[in-house]
């Protein structure tokens, strides 16, 4: 044990045909138990975990070789051995699986409901036999902190300003936060239920709205999963157009969040400056692709519309002025000591925790974990572009802001390269009428989005799971705030900017 | 060395605010005219203080992004005295987004109860109208009007800042007729 690679280990199971582009293996109970043992020591990270009525799936990546594979385990008795004890990032996922699919994670200490607030018409709504709702009112036992002079501050679900709903329970001693516990699930829309049996175009629309700020990344991951499942070859130009849209989305989100973090430190001029930059990107999107957020522009088989030559010229013009304004914002951030006073050494996340939870995106990169799906496993057009992924190790609010600045700059550079090297040709092809299973990965501004689906021959989605990077980032926010003062929570929260909607599904 | 903030402020003083320079192409429904009309009516009815509390009852966050845009210097809603506030107790208008999820149903009702009369409720986005593409799910009640009385819908997925401005104008007309 120890030296075995992920693929070597999984090949002990039965390989499932028709799963692309990475293999899927079915493990029996013994195999699943061994998998958990290996996960204790091996450098395999969990990319996503999801369930069906009587089967559990986990997507894994071998960090040494970059190999990706899905491990599946049939559990006809509706119980499975939990991975949460060896991979704490999936504890909430397994609690959610129990709430929605009715599969019990055996060995998991935390058995509280996660998505189910006791308000649905049935319990375990997607299980083979949903149960009647409980007559008891919903009570959520928050974890306690015990000691002299402790008090609680409950916040939410309707909280702060223009923001999604969530509940935060602070245990404080004076100003200092002793413990923060989140309770989410308010945004749960039953997306996995809606996707079952949906025709492809409807499913694409829904997946594009799992998390509105990452709509391009979700559409891209979904399209790549469908194309993998059907064996569809997308024209080259479509890949490059997708890349342009994805980078535009990254820039828009990063600049806005930088402004918002500074605003939470009472430095409103930065929010105004960055708000103007964001609007420039959104207007460019509107002119170039006909939607400010590029919703529904990436479709299975390509993209829904082409970019004109005038559009390319207009975009180059925008990029020139944009880079200079972004640099001004950076100078302003770096040279304002009152701002640094709030962001430096605030909300630190330890590198060891980042690795344990497998957190990606700027949250991971600010704490020394440089994973980026554009590099590993990589996908077009990034496989033909050189790119640098900024990595810092401080892990504080400041580091997360600086990583975002660096990423935004890099994105401008990438868009420029893509515009110059974009090939001519078609932008969309029809999908082959075949069934299959596929997995798609795309790097959103937050981190890696994973979409897995099983498609019938009539192009009806039999099962689809969209996985948001926030699953592995939300728990780290609880760790980041510990020991900080309550007033710094907005700074920490915004510097993470985890998705509520994507996480709640 | 001149501090960067001084440079930025000086540039804005010399060149004027973004609001003027980057206004959209002039057209009859342009944001300037729209925003001016909105400002006049808001003043006539409620002085210079129309306060909006945004409530996300289950949206994908797309609507919130565009609400943020309305607050930015380019659209700058606050110059007309319309502002977003942090508490429903300070609000005249609740701007509700998203299909109402079952987990948010009670929170939405309670937020409405916490808003003093006279109050108006605006449902925003296609989801807010009838649940949009999330309608029919076990976890979704439906549109905002399925839970609380709605005075106005602002359509779009998500509505553009211009549509949001137009929607708030329509709200004021509705209010005048009451």
Automatic annotation (TrEMBL), chain A:
KW Iron-sulfur (keyword) present: no
Superkingdom of origin: Bacteria
Positions contributing to Mg(2+) binding: 192
Tagged with keyword NAD: no
Domain NADH-quinone oxidoreductase subunit D: 276-430
Molecular functions per Gene Ontology: NAD binding; nickel cation binding; oxidoreductase activity, acting on NAD(P)H; quinone binding
UniProt keyword annotations, A-Z: Magnesium, Metal-binding, Oxidoreductase
UniProt-recorded name of the protein: Ni,Fe-hydrogenase III large subunit
From TrEMBL, chain B:
Gene3D superfamilies registered for this protein in UniProt: 3.40.50.12280
GO terms for MF: 4 iron, 4 sulfur cluster binding; metal ion binding
InterPro entries registered for this protein in UniProt: Complex_I_20kDa-like, NADH_UbQ_OxRdtase-like_20kDa
Domain (NADH:ubiquinone oxidoreductase-like 20kDa subunit) ranges: 60-171
Record key words, sorted: 4Fe-4S, Cell membrane, Iron, Iron-sulfur, Membrane, Metal-binding
Pfam families, per the entry: Oxidored_q6
Reported cofactor(s): [4Fe-4S] cluster
Family classification: Belongs to the complex I 20 kDa subunit family.
NCBIfam families: PRK06411.1
Protein name: Ni,Fe-hydrogenase III small subunit
């Amino acid at each position: 044990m120890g030296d075995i690679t992920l693929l070597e280990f999984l090949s002990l199971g039965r390989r499932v045909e028709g799963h692309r582009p990475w293999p899927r293996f079915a493990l029996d109970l013994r195999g699943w138990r061994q998998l958990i043992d290996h996960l204790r020591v091996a450098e395999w990270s969990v990319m996503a975990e999801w369930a069906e009525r009587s089967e559990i799936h986990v997507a894994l990546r071998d960090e040494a070789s970059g190999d990706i594979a899905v491990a599946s385990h049939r559990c006809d008795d509706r119980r499975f051995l939990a991975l949460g004890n060896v991979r704490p990032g999936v504890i909430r996922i397994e609690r959610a699986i129990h709430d929605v699919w009715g599969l019990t994670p055996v060995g998991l200490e935390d058995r509280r409901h996660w998505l189910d607030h006791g308000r649905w018409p049935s319990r375990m709504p997607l299980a083979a036999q949903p149960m009647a709702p409980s007559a008891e009112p919903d009570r959520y036992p928050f974890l306690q902190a015990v000691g002299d002079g402790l008090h609680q501050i409950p916040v939410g679900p309707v909280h702060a300003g223009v923001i999604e709903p969530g509940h935060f329970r602070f245990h404080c001693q004076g100003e200092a936060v002793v413990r923060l516990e989140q309770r989410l699930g308010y945004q749960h829309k039953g997306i996995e239920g809606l996707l079952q049996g949906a025709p492809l175009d409807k499913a694409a629309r829904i997946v594009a709205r799992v998390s509105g700020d990452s709509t391009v990344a979700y559409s891209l991951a979904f399209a790549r999963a469908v194309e993998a499942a059907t064996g569809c070859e997308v024209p080259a130009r479509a890949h490059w157009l997708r890349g342009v849209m994805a980078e535009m989305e990254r820039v828009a989100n990063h600049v806005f969040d930088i402004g918002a973090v500074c605003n939470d430190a009472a430095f409103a001029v930065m929010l105004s400056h960055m708000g103007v930059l964001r609007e420039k990107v959104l207007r460019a999107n509107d002119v170039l692709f006909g939607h400010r957020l590029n919703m529904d522009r990436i479709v299975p088989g390509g993209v829904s519309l082409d970019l004109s030559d005038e559009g390319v010229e207009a975009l180059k013009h925008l990029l020139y002025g944009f880079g200079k304004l972004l640099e001004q914002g950076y100078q302003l951030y770096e040279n304002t000591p009152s701002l640094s006073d709030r962001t430096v050494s605030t909300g630190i996340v330890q590198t060891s925790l980042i690795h344990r939870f497998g957190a990606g995106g700027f949250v991971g990169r600010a704490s020394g974990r440089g994973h980026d799906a554009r590099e590993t496993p990589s996908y077009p057009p990034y496989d033909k572009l050189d790119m640098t992924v900024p990595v810092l190790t401080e892990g504080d609010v400041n580091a997360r802001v600086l990583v975002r600045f660096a990423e935004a700059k890099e994105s401008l550079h990438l868009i420029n390269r893509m515009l110059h090297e974009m090939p001519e040709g078609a932008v969309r092809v029809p999908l082959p009428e075949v069934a299959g299973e596929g997995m798609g990965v795309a790097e959103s501004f937050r981190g890696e989005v994973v979409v897995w689906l099983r498609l019938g021959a009539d192009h009806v989605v039999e099962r689809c799971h969209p996985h948001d990077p926030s699953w592995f980032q939300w728990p780290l926010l609880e760790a980041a705030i510990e020991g900080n003062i309550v007033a710094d929570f907005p700074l920490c929260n915004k510097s993470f900017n985890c998705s509520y909607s994507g996480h709640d599904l | 060395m001149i501090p960067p903030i001084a440079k930025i402020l000086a540039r804005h003083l010399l060149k004027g605010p973004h609001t003027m320079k980057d206004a959209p192409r002039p057209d009859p429904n342009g944001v300037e005219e729209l925003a001016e009309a909105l400002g006049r009516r808001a003043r006539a009815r409620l002085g210079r203080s129309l306060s909006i509390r945004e409530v996300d009852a289950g949206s994908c966050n797309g609507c919130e992004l565009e609400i943020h845009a309305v607050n930015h210097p380019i659209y700058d809603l606050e110059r007309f005295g319309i502002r977003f506030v942090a508490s429903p107790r300070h609000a005249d208008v609740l701007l509700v987004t998203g299909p109402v999820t079952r987990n948010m149903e009670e929170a939405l009702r309670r937020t409405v109860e916490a808003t003093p009369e006279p109050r108006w409720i605006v449902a925003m986005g296609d989801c807010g109208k009838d649940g949009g593409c999330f309608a029919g799910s076990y976890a979704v009640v439906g549109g905002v009007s399925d839970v609380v009385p709605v005075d106005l819908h602002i359509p779009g997925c998500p509505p553009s800042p211009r549509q949001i401005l137009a929607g708030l104008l329509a709200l004021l007309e509705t209010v005048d007729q009451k």
